[in-house]
Amino acid sequence: MSSKEVPDQQSIRNETQLEGHRTEATVLNQQPCQPDIHTVLRELSTKLAEVRVEMRYTKSQMEDLKKQNEAAEIRIKASEKEVEELKKQNEGQAQELRELQMSSNTTESQVRELKRENDYKIAFSASFSTDEETKTIGPFDADFTLKYTNVFVNHDNAYNPDTGIFTAPVKGVYTFRYSITGYGSNSTPVGARLFKNGQPVVVAYCQQPSHRVSTTNGASLLLEVGDVVYVQLYPKTQIYDNVYRYNTFTGQLLFTL
Fold first, then answer.
1. What does the alpha-carbon distance between residue 247 and residue 160 come to, in Å, rounded to a whole number?
2. Which helix (H) or strand (E) holds 46?
3. Among 137, 141, 140, which Cα is nearest to 149's?
């Protein structure tokens, strides 16, 4: 081997080593960078902790919402109960109102009735008018209407002293009473009848042989407007009177209809 060949071989060996270093560097440069497993685990632990915190927070929120819903349900039930109570109270108040209205209507009706009755205060009382020692009336062959001209009271002027007749100004129930007095006689009794619209209702009648005799009678009658009531001396009887006014005729309205 010549001295010239030796340098050439050395050069080849140098280049080969240099290329090998280059290739190794290239390979090393081309290998991917592997992450640190501890770092990854730390990151995963951190994220897991964050997720757990969020889950606990979400669970707490859900518990709060559940409690709020339960409280809301309790309030709703309480409100429904209050509504039912108010409804019952309203129904009771409505019933009381209806009863008050009925009572008010009844009271108004009673007031109107009382007002109507007060509007018709009808009463009269009268006797014969005489200043004589003694005055005898009768006997007559037929009924004779007695005229009580001495008026004690004649409220509403339903009684006419000129005719002796009472005329009903309003429909209602009236009460009447009359008294008669006469001398006892074997032949002439004492008697008079109460008439309504020409029909006898009751009679007062007595007879004794001597001394003064008195009797009375009366009735309550339902009268329509315009009905008439009066007293007539019974046929073939007589009565007498004096300043003491034994013979009277009275009447008054009890209530209207």
1. 17
2. helix 37-119
3. 137
Q: Which pLDDT tens digits describe the chain residue by residue (257 residues)?
A: 444 444 555 665 565 555 555 545 554 454 454 558 888 888 888 888 888 888 888 888 888 888 898 888 898 988 888 888 888 888 888 888 888 888 878 787 777 776 666 678 999 999 998 777 788 999 999 999 999 999 999 999 999 999 999 999 999 999 999 999 998 888 999 999 999 999 999 999 999 988 889 999 999 999 999 999 999 999 999 999 998 999 999 999 999 99
What residues have CB less than 8 Å from 137, skipping those under 6 apart? Answer: 128, 144, 146, 233, 238, 239, 240, 241
Structure tokens at 74: 């309790």
The position carrying tokens 């129904």 is 91
DSSP-derived 3-state class of residue 168: coil
One-letter amino acid at 93 equals Q
| 3-state class percentages of the chain: helix first, strand second, coil last, to nearest 5 | 40, 30, 25
Overall pTM surpassing 0.90 (yes/no): no
Torsion over CA: 151, 152, 154, 158 (sign): negative
User: Could you give the CA distance from residue 189 to residue 193 in angstroms, rounded to a whole number?
Assistant: 13
Q: Is 89 helix (H, G, I), strand (E, B) or coil?
A: helix
Confirm if 231 and 166 have CB atoms less than 8 A apart: no
In whole angstroms, what is the distance from residue 51 CA to residue 111 CA?
86
Per the CB < 8 A criterion, the answer to whether 232 and 144 are in contact is: yes
Q: How far is CA 160 from CA 148, 165, 187, 193, in A?
A: 9, 6, 33, 18
